[in-house]
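Weekly modeling sync, notes
Attendees: S.R. (lead), two postdocs, one rotation student

Agenda item 3: backlog of single-chain predictions. S.R. asked that every request posted to the team notebook include the full sequence so nobody has to chase files. The rotation student volunteered to paste the first one in as an example of the format we agreed on. Action items at the bottom.

Example entry:
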Amino acid sequence: MTPEERLVAALRDARLTFALAESCTGGLVASRVTRVVHASDALRGALVTYTDEAKAELLGIDRALLASKGAVTKEVAREMATRVRELLATDLAVSVAGFAGPNVPPGGERGLVFLGVAHWGGVEVHEMRYAGDREKVREAATQDALRFALEAIPKTRAALGQA
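Predicted structure, as returned to the notebook:
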């Protein structure tokens, strides 16, 4: 069973919903999830907010935060996950913000990715550093996004008082 199949099955079994806000992965996480039969029982939607403008306009991320901290930060990943969860009224949400390369702005680090996970029990942000070219970084981030979403299911259930 693939990670996305395990995720959809676990979400369906727990009767939980989730959403995605992707940046550097450009919809790869959503693409993998939507290949799974019955994914619509769990996935409410996904937003690809590739630019700062999209993050501000679609997710409501504070422009001052984006200007002062940059889009690839723990704070922005936290806000992306929180806001997409609120917007799509889901039990949990995952966000991906990072530098896949090859072009990275001054002060940035190729392979640096923040994965946010928002659920009823709170919000977590995982700071990851991946080696390799653009596609390897994007694939690794996609794998970890699926893994962190799956790991959030028991936390979400516990926060909801489910056995």
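Discussion: group reviewed the output briefly. Residues 134-159 form the longest helix (26 residues).
Action items: rotation student to repeat for the remaining queue; S.R. to check formatting next week.
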